[in-house]
Amino acid sequence: MNDTYIRILLIDDDEDDYVVTRDLLSEASGLKHTLHWISSYDQALGIICENKYDVYIVDYRLGERTGLDLLYKASCNGCRAPFILLTGEGDHETDLKAMNAGAADYLVKGEISAPLLERSIRYAIRQKLTEERIYHMAFYDSLTNLPNRVLFQDRLRLALANAERHNHMSAVLFLDIDNFKRINDTFGHILGDRLLKEVAGRLSSIMRKCDSVTREAPDLFARLGGDEFTVLLNVISETQDAARVANRIKESISMPFNVDGYEIFITSSIGIAIYPVDGEEMESLLKNADAAMYHAKEHGRNNYQYYKQYMNAAAFERLTLENDLRKALERDEFLLYYQPLIDLNTGSITGMEALIRWKHPDGGIVPPSEFIPLAEETGLILPISEWVLKTACAQSNAWRAEGNKPLPVSVNLSSQQFQQKNFINNLSGILSESGISPRDLSLEITESTVMQNTKTSFASLHKLTEMGLLLVIDDFGTGYSSLSYLKSFPIHSIKIDRSFVKEISTDTDNAAIVTAIISMAHSLRLKVVAEGVESADQLEFLCRQGCNEVQGYLFSPPVPPEEISRLLLAEARGEGIGDLILKKGTGHLKTI
User: What is the pLDDT of residue 374?
Assistant: First the structure.
C-alpha cells in the first residue's frame, strides 16, 4: 500500500455510480485516497494485472460479465489486492458467492454511507495485509526473506507443466555453501545467520541483474534450509545457459563478505539438473540436482557439476556411509593405529602418531580419506575427535604401564575441534582422567586451522603450551607458510607435508622447498619432522639437510598398539627399526 494515499480503482459501467462513490469518499475526511474509474471489463482486467491499486471497488453487473468473473480472473493472474463488490439490491445468495470467491466485502448501492464505505475499505486492506503476512510466513524463509521449499516446489511444478506444454528445457540448480559448519563453529550461529542473509542478498541481486547480451537470469532463488539454496531457470535454450548462471553465482559468492567486522571468504558447490533429460518430475529433478551438488563437493568444491546417471549410485553410497558412520562410535568400530617417529641422530623411536581407522561392519577397513571429510561435513568429527584423544591418552598410559620409556603420542586436531570454545577444558579433563603427563601428548594442527582466526588461535596455543603440551604444525608448506606466525606462535616442531617429501630425490623444486623449510625452522629453533619417507634416497637427502625426525613406510606403516609394544620391546633389546642413519662425515647411509 502507498504510504500516503490509498489507491482505489472503481470498476463500474454506470457513470452515476462513479459520481456517488467519489462524493462519498470526499466526505470520508480521514481517508487519504486517490480514486480512478473505468467502465470496461477488459480494460479493468489489464489494469488489475499491473497491481497498481490497493483496493478495487467492482460493480457486480458489468454488462455480459460480472464482478465475480473479474475477481476469479484477477486472482488467477496473481492479483492480491482486495475486492469490494457492489450490487443494486441485497441478495443473500449473491453475498455468499462474493465471500466464497474471496471478496473482502459486499455493499448494497443506495445503502452506502461515507462512514460505511470508509470502514469497508479500511477493513478490506487490513484483511488483505493479514492474509499477506500469513502468506509470507507460509511461503517465505524468515531469515533470508527468500522463497522457502514449499513455494519453490510450487513454482517448479508450474514451470515443468509450462515446459511440457511448450516443449522447452528448464533447469534446477542446487547450491550449498562449502564448509559452512566451520563458520558456525568458529564465529557462532548468530554471525552464521547474518552471513546467510548476505548470501541471500547477493543471490537476489544476481536475479535482478539480467545479462543484457545473453538475457540469462534466474527466475527464482529459494532457501531450502541451513546453507542450501535452489535456483529455478524456467526457460533455457541450451544446457550451457545453466552453466553461465552457475558461474555468475559461484563468482559472486566467492567475493569476500564483511560481517560484524570480519572479512569472510566462502565458496559454493552447485549441482545442475536439466528438464527433461535429467528428470520429468519435480522430485527427480531436485534429487538429481542434489546428487550433482555432492559430486561438485567431491571434486574439490567451488565448482558446478551437471547431473549424470551414475551420481545417484554415488549419492546412495554416500548416504549409506553417512548412516553407518553415525553408528560407528556406539558400535565401537573405530581403531587407532600408530606410526613411529624415528630420530635421525640415534635411530631410536621418539614418539608415534595416532591414526584413526574404521572397521566397517561389512568387514573391510575404511581409510580416513574416505570418512573424515564426511565426518567434517556432518559434524560427526567432534565426537570422533574426542574419542581419538581419549583412546590415545589411555594407550599412552598402557604403554607406560608395560615398562616402556615415556614417548609422546601425536594426535591430529580437526579444525572444528580446535575452534570449540570448551576445547581446552575438555582436553584438560581427558588428561586428568587418563593420568598421563601433558608432555606425553603432542597436538598436530594444520596451518589453515591456525590461520582461520589468528587472535583466538594465538591465545589457545599459548594456553595449551602453558599446560605443558607439545604443539606441531602439520602438513607444513601446503597452507599459509608465514614466517611471522612461526615466530609468534608457541610451537615446538613442524611436519613437512608428504607431497614435498615424495619427490625430493627427483624434483629439484621440491628439494629446494624442503631444504628451505628445514633451514628456516632450525633458525627459529624448531624441530623438523618429515612424513611419508618411503625410500633410502629420500632418507639420505633428509639426513644431509639436518632433518630431525622422520616417519614413513621405510621404517614402519601405521600398526595396531600391540605391534608398537613389540617394536618398543625389540628396541629395548637393541633391535630397533631405525637401523638406517647417515654416517657422519661421509654422506653415506649405514646400518646401526
Answer: 82
Q: Mapping DSSP to helix (H, G, I), strand (E, B) and coil, where does residue 127 land?
A: helix
**CA torsion through residues 475, 478, 482, 485, sign:** negative
- For each of the domains in the chain, give its residue range(s) and CATH number, in order of start: 6-139 (3.40.50.2300), 149-308 (3.30.70.270), 331-591 (3.20.20.450)
Whether the CB-CB separation of 38 and 44 falls below 8 Å is answered with yes
- What are the tens digits of pLDDT across the range 73-86? 877 666 778 888 88
Residue type, 224: L
Work out the pLDDT band at 587, boundaries 50, 70, 90: very low
Residue where the block lists cell 642413519: 581
CA distance linking residue 141 with residue 73, whole number of Å: 29
Query: pTM for this one?
Result: 0.55
| SS3 track for 369-390 | HHHHHHHHHHCCHHHHHHHHHH
pLDDT digits (tens, 9 = 90+) for 330-345: 888 999 999 999 999 8
Closest CA to 206 of 162, 262, 158, 254: 254
Torsion of CA 461, 462, 463, 469, to 10 degrees: 70
Determine the Cα–Cα distance for residues 448 and 456; give it in Å rounded to an integer: 14
Are residues 70 and 40 in contact, defined by beta-carbon separation less than 8 angstroms? Answer: no
Q: Label residues 382-398 b or e (16+ Cβ within 10 Å = b).
A: bebbbbbbebbbbbbee
Q: Is the peptide bond before 408 cis (omega within 30 degrees of 0)?
A: no
| Whether residue 483 has pLDDT greater than 70 | no
Q: How many whole angstroms separate alpha carbon 563 and alpha carbon 270?
A: 46
Q: Which H helix or E strand runs over 336?
A: strand 334-343
Round to whole Å and give the CA distance between 151 and 563.
Answer: 59
Average pLDDT over residues 99-117: 83
